[in-house]
Design brief:
3-stranded antiparallel beta sheet, 2 domains, Fructose-1,6-Bisphosphatase, Chain A, domain 1, 14 strands, alpha+beta
Length: 275
């Protein structure tokens, strides 16, 4: 598939991906509101709930219509010798922040990214409890945020038309650091301590899931350091939001942009910075 073909398809693909995120969010919220789900443990001891599985099935059914390969956290383990031939693919986390879902603190998201040539050219991050969608795409030349009045049904064209361009906030009274609520470690603490010494006034905000990236994209946080393990589906969609909002998501060791569909799907440590 050649680049011009993708450019022409991007508006329709964005609408399809937004719809998939909303429908997955509805499936998640049905379970979330009823507190009716089972919890299993995956091989890495991370939790897997009925909501993760239902959201995956919902997204998969919608995105298969695009005929673009799908790499999902809850999907098949696709060998690299197959994936390496995919110049274009979806990378999906049906429920990012399962621990936050279980804690019932509203800090979880649906993440859908479109990757071309190992870089995100589209991203959708939907926080169902807050009815908030962040989206970005190459053809829009920007990143956007919109709060839905009702996420049970969606006119995707209206959602796109009513969104506000990011960043929304350009200044703050102090240097704001956002960090993981569930995955802090010594290396992150050390990095934050250095920032506290560097800046006269700092504030630490703890959040779960891809919401951390979105706070940086909005301009509500200045930096998000991550030195604990993540996988590609945790970051791909949110990286698109940050980058199209003018920020950066850089490998902490090489200072180069994070790449995707690698042989090893575990991300390196990274730093997210606002515009």
């Amino acid at each position: 598939m050649q680049l011009p073909d993708i450019a022409n398809r991007l508006p329709k693909l964005l609408q399809t991906a937004i719809l998939a995120s909303i429908e997955a969010g509805n499936a998640i919220m049905t379970i979330y509101n009823n507190h009716s789900y089972s919890i299993d443990l995956k091989s890495d001891n991370s939790p897997l709930t009925t909501a993760d599985k239902n959201a995956h099935q919902t997204i998969y059914q919608i995105l298969t219509s695009t005929k673009i390969p799908i790499l999902s956290e809850e999907g098949e383990n696709i060998p690299y010798n197959i994936r390496k031939n995919w110049d274009l693919l979806w990378i999906v986390d049906p429920l990012d922040g399962t621990k936050e879902f279980i804690k019932h603190n509203d800090e979880f998201t649906v993440n859908i990214a479109l990757i071309q040539g190992q870089r995100p050219i589209m991203g959708i991050v939907f926080c169902p409890p807050l009815k908030t969608i962040y989206f970005a795409a190459e053809h829009l030349n920007g990143a956007f945020k919109v709060v839905l009045s009702d996420n049970t049904s969606a006119n995707v064209s209206e959602i796109i038309a009513n969104a506000s361009k990011l960043p929304l906030s350009q200044s703050s009274d102090c240097f704001t650091i956002v960090a993981s609520r569930s995955h802090l470690n010594d290396e992150t603490d050390d990095f934050i301590s250095k920032l506290n010494r560097k800046y006269e006034e700092t504030k630490l905000v703890s959040k779960g899931s891809s919401i951390k990236f979105c706070l940086v994209a909005e301009g509500l946080a200045d930096i998000y350091p991550r030195f604990a393990p993540t996988c590609e589906w945790d970051t791909a969609a949110a990286q698109a939001i940050v980058e199209f909002a003018g920020g950066s998501v850089l490998n902490a060791a090489t200072n180069s942009p994070m790449t995707y569909n690698k042989q090893n799907l575990i991300n390196p440590s990274f730093i997210v910075k606002r515009k």
